[in-house]
Structures are given as structure tokens and as C-alpha cells.
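Field reference: sequence -> structure
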Amino acid sequence: MATIPFSIVDVFAEQKYAGNQLAVVRNAQGLSSEQMQKIAREMNFSETTFVLSDAPRDDGYDVRIFTPAAEVPFAGHPTLGTAWVIRQEIVHSPVEQVKLNLQVGQIPVTFGQAAEPDVLWMKQNPPTFGATVDVNEVAEVLGLAPSQIDARWPVQEVSTGMWFVIVPLVNLSAVKQARLARDKYFAFIENRQAKAILVVCPEPYSRGGDLSVRVFVPYYGIEEDPATGSGNGCLAGWLVKHRYFATDRIDIRVEQGYEIGRPSRIHLRANEENGTVAVHVGGKVVPVAKGEFV
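Structure field:
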């Protein structure tokens, strides 16, 4: 049996042991879907990715993404972290871009722009905007009063490859107070495209941030996610569509993961042209460990 190496990295992290953990497994073409799911459950990170081969196909690398509970078609921090590992461990060259072949299509990841050389950027698919959600219903799910949801903006389902319910809250106190009622959550998502809930407010945790975010995804075995690139990509599209900052373009920093001891920083850029929102999500990747399966 061929050696199956893996790397562990922290994504959207400003330092080691922060951000969102990711295991990247290489030479995975010989693993069944069941084996991949078991490995993802063993790792027990928000996601584990599997690079099927070190050889590119259609100028990109075939990658599958698993949470501890299920395979997903797209996720943000696995996209950035896997591209970083491919560049370091497979390409062995400071290329400017690595492309990942995911279930949602080919996603390019760009390295090292002049102003922020350590930040990787992915271009996500254009956002799709779904149904709006009743404020009272989502407030019950989050254990909040309806008045803690910012009535100036819609609670809405959005996807750039994975669906999220975007919930604007009035302040950081409301973000910190949010507690998912599991029974109400599972009833809430039963007939919805979105299984993940993202809450956001315009009050950062620290200097240098613009927004604070929390993400809850028990459906995929993730009670609370430390840093969510896919969800923040949806948020970027929502911010532009609804002119949250009174402009058709944004270049901001989002803070997430503070409540669970994994402080994270996510860079968002988005702009609207001809009715379509272009979304870019960026962040740093910090290496943590390497090993191989026995």
C-alpha cells in the first residue's frame, strides 16, 4: 500500500494554534468514500480534505472535503489550506496560483499579493440569494429576543457553493449571547437548503476588525466553527447586495472563533458589476504538523 501522508495547518490564523484546523491527506485515490469519512471522523476537525493525486488534472488538483459527519461540495478554509499544502508539498515552487477541482467546480487560490504577501485569496462562485427568514423563528433558534436581530437588514439564505442563513444582529453582546437550541435548530433546517447559521454584527472583537461573526453547523457535526470561508463568502455577497456599508464594494476584515478559543481573521473583498457580485475570501495559513497513516 502506498504511503498516505497528511499535513495539519491552521487557516485564517494570525499565529499557530488559532484559526480553523485542517487535515490535508494526500495520495488518497485508493481510499473509499467510507474510509475518507472515517478518517475525517478520526481527525475530528471541522473539515478534512483528500487530495486524490499529486498529478494535476485540467490544470487543477482533484480534492474531496469531509466534515466529521458528511462530505460537502465546498468549504472555504479547506480550500485555502489545501492549496497551501499542495504548493508546499507537491508543487515545490512559489507559483502564484493553485486550482482545486471541487464538486462545485474549479476554484483558484492566489498567493501573496504585494500589500499582504502572507494572505491567500480564493475567488468563490457568484452568490445565489435564496429565501428570507422570519425574524421571530430564527430568534428562537438562537436563544435571542427578536429585538436583538437588526431589523434594517433581511435574514436570508445565501450560497456561493454551500448554503448559509445570514442573521444580522444589533451588537457584539447579542453575538456573544447566541446559543443554539438544538431541537429548534433541527426543526428549523429540516425543509431549508441552508443547514448553517451565520450571525454577524458591526462591532469587532479587536482593533483591525470590521465585523464579528459566529457560525453554527451541527448538521455537519460542527457545533460552532472557528473560521468559515464559505459562510463569510456568502456574507460578503449579502453585505454588497444589501449595501450594508452603503457601497457596492467592500474590503474588510471579519473576526470569528473568539468564543471557542480559536481567534480567526478572514479577509473579504467583493464588488457588484452588472447585477453580479464577485466574491474573494482571504486569510493566512500556518503549518502545525506532518505525519502519515499506518
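Note: DSSP finds six helices and 18 strands in the chain.
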